[in-house]
Write a structure and sequence with these properties.
The protein contains 21 helices and 22 strands. The chain is elongated.
């Protein structure tokens, strides 16, 4: 959301009447603003700041989740359009956390928001949905309502501690209604340390606690003298942090701590209860189940650690793709220099195939390190699925059987990312059958309607089902299989199914899992049918495409420049090489001045310690706005590759590319220009 999305002009009227001032000891209402635009955050902070409020800002979903681990909030204002993880995904994760499950969320979005987005916001737990530009008085009034509700709730809790025993009894009754469904344990003890109140859904499922039966439902401090009740040391004898907290409260010191109780983690507040003379006559306390928060903290810690590893993985993948490009390019040159009947020709072909299979490893590293938008093209998956499934099974005792119709519809997809999905799922199936077995892959064309109950729009899709006969997934694990880092394998990362799920989701598809213990697992992948047809595959598409013209080739990797310098003349082109953007711009300018202009350029996107392809392209267009150029990169998920035309490029090629692929793209770019 931009700062212009909030109209800061004075209101037409005097505004609503002022509210009653809060009490002097009123609690501060924390408000979390989530927007990827810093100016918009500052504008909203200026609009909403005021007495009794603390404004916190986050520029991404991940930063917002870290804020929620540090404190609770009275209200969250959440922009729908966020990078990486949008507002709906962020809201879903907020709702998964027990302590923020009921925190009010107001979505903010542009006026062109679809009705389906509003419904999606409501299903995500939003209490309101405001359209930009936001009218200041409307936003202020809505925020004021939730701040008032927060203060009212805090006032009730404070009165439960500070008022008389009769007021405490009424507060206990009020809180009992809340505790019935909230993950809390509400407890009270008299001055002798015997329980007079023990209630809450947080008690369910606790293990290892003695004497709980008969205690639940006790009605308060005044109604029980301690007879026929249980002393706190009996129930919590094996939990020293609880014993310490209660003993301190009985001695007049309020405190809080956290720890494990009966297999769950709780954050516990202990407050001494005094009579009118100041004498401690009991203890009241609230234990909040923070098990999910602890898990989230552990996941964030692991995610931060994996992010560091991911940056390293991305750099390794980029360098590895450069190496593979040089390898495949020189193998292509070797094939040109060898006769087809030469004894080494077949070995060179097999080496090419092996080098291209290694591309899947770098694709996994790139997806792991950055995610990214899929680079879609129209594909027919029939000829690809068998090869994708066989590769991870090499050397294993598991076999794969494919049933794929010849008329399987084409899809718009990123070939590398779908390859990774199939690899991950086949590996999972293989590991579920340690003694060997059979994996069945079945594909079909399907028409999806409302009666199927799938989270997909009605229309034509393809479905790919991968079935194993392995150990299956226990029912209590099914809800967690897509959670990041969830794994039951000693050496597993817990990223396989998570990565597969998000890749399919980014393809506007759906991934579903059916399983039962000892009955195997079936994974179904749904993908929408492509609007167009996939290009027909044939022998012509596999050969080198020749052409003519002067080509400017820029890459900071010397082996790749050497390959291009030798290969492009074989295709009929004159080539001049540059190692960075500045040299490329200078060569381009001099060629124009000498009236020997270049017909096209091939530019590497990432140049270490130099000008890369994006900036170079902008400089070249200042000299010749019509120059066709191809962008190349070892980072296949860079946004410039995903939307190359926006940056002035006429085509893209991702490393490692083959000589055949480069020749076709170059000929296509030059042919389009000359045809125009």
């Amino acid at each position: 959301m931009r700062s212009a999305d909030i109209d800061l002009s004075p209101p037409l009227a005097d505004g609503p009447p002022a509210r009653m001032p809060a009490a002097a000891a009123e609690s501060t209402a924390n408000i979390l603003l989530i927007d990827d635009d810093a100016k918009s955050l500052l504008a909203m902070e200026a609009l909403l700041a005021g007495p009794g409020r603390a404004i916190f800002k986050a520029e991404s979903g991940a930063e917002a989740l870290r804020c929620l681990l540090q404190r609770d909030f009275a209200l969250i204002l959440l922009d729908v359009r966020l990078p990486v993880m949008d507002g709906f995904e962020t809201a879903a994760l907020i709702r998964q956390r027990e302590r923020s499950r009921y925190t009010p969320i107001i979505f903010l979005s542009a006026v062109d928001t679809l009705e389906s987005d509003v419904l999606k916001g409501a299903s995500s737990g939003a209490v309101d949905y405001l359209f930009k530009p936001v009218i200041p008085e409307v936003l202020k009034s809505k925020v004021a309502v939730f701040v008032d509700l927060f203060h009212l709730n805090e006032r009730v809790k404070r009165q439960a501690i500070e008022q008389s025993q009769e007021a405490l009894r009424r507060a206990e009754e009020h809180l009992r209604a809340v505790v019935t469904n909230a993950p809390l344990i509400l407890f009270a003890l008299n001055g002798e340390g015997h329980f007079t109140l023990l209630e809450g859904s947080g008690l369910q499922g606790l293990q290892g606690l003695q004497g709980l039966q008969g205690l639940q439902g006790l009605q308060g401090l005044q109604q029980n003298s301690g007879q026929n009740t249980v002393h706190f040391s009996t129930i919590f004898s094996t939990f020293p942090h609880v014993l310490t907290g209660i003993e301190r409260a009985l001695n007049g010191d309020a405190s809080s701590n956290s720890g494990e109780i009966g297999g769950r983690w709780f954050e516990i507040n202990y407050t001494p209860f005094r009579n009118q003379t100041g004498l401690v006559v009991g203890v009241i306390g609230v234990a909040v189940d923070i098990t999910e928060q602890k898990r989230a903290e552990e996941e964030i810690f692991r995610a931060n650690k994996m992010e560091s590893v991911g940056l390293l993985a991305g750099g390794i993948a980029h360098d590895f793709n450069n190496i593979l490009t040089a390898i495949t390019g020189n193998l292509a040159l070797a094939k040109i220099y060898l006769d087809a009947d030469h004894r080494a020709f077949k070995r060179v072909e097999e080496s090419q195939k092996a080098a291209l299979r290694a591309q899947t490893l770098t694709q996994q590293l790139l997806t792991f390190s950055h995610g990214g938008l899929p680079l879609k093209k129209t594909l027919r998956l029939g000829p690809l699925l068998g090869d994708w499934a066989d590769f991870p099974l090499q050397g294993s005792t598991v076999q794969c059987q494919c049933s794929i119709p010849d008329d399987l519809w084409p899809v718009e997809a990123d070939e590398g990312q779908l390859n990774q999905v199939i690899n991950n799922l086949i590996l999972n199936a293989q590991q579920a059958m340690p003694d060997g077995g059979l994996i069945r892959i079945h594909a079909a064309n399907v028409a999806i309607g409302a009666k199927e109950g799938l989270p997909l729009p009605p229309g034509r899709h393809i479905v790919i089902r991968i079935q194993d006969h392995g150990t299956g997934i226990p029912p209590d694990h099914m809800a967690k299989i897509f959670d990041p880092f969830f794994t039951t394998k000693p050496t597993g990362s817990g990223l396989g199914l998570t990565t597969a799920y998000w890749i399919i989701k980014r393809h506007q598809g759906h991934l579903a899992v059916e399983s039962a213990p000892r009955a195997g697992t079936t994974v179904s992948i749904y993908l929408p049918r492509a609007e167009g047809e996939a290009p027909a595959a044939g022998p012509a598409a596999e050969g080198l495409t020749t052409g003519s013209g002067r080509i400017l080739f820029m890459d900071d990797d010397e082996p790749i420049r050497a390959f291009a310098y030798e290969m492009l003349p074989q295709l009929g082109y004159e080539v001049v090489c540059a190692q960075d953007g500045r040299e490329a711009v200078e060569l381009f300018r001099k060629a124009r001045e000498a009236r020997q202009p270049f017909d096209a350029a091939i530019l590497d996107l990432t140049v270490r310690a130099g000008m890369g392809g994006k900036e170079t392209m902008a400089r070249l267009r200042e000299i010749d706005s019509a120059i066709p150029a191809i962008v190349s990169s070892g980072y296949s998920n860079d946004p410039v590759l995903a939307d190359f035309a926006r940056y002035g490029f006429s085509g893209r090629v991702t490393k490692p590319y083959t000589a055949e692929e480069l020749s076709r793209i170059l000929a296509g770019v030059l042919g389009h220009r000359r045809g125009a």
